[in-house]
Amino acid sequence: MQRHPSLISLSHEHKRLLFVCRYLKKDAAPYEGFPLETQARFEYIVKVFQEVMVPHIQKEEYLFEKCAGKSAAIDVMIKELQAEHLVISRMYTTLTDSTDLDSAMDILATHLETHIRKEERQFFELLQQELPDLLNGLQLALE
Question: Given CB 3.0 to 4.6 Å as the disulfide criterion, which of 24, 40, 65, 75 pairs with 105?
Answer without folding.
Answer: 24
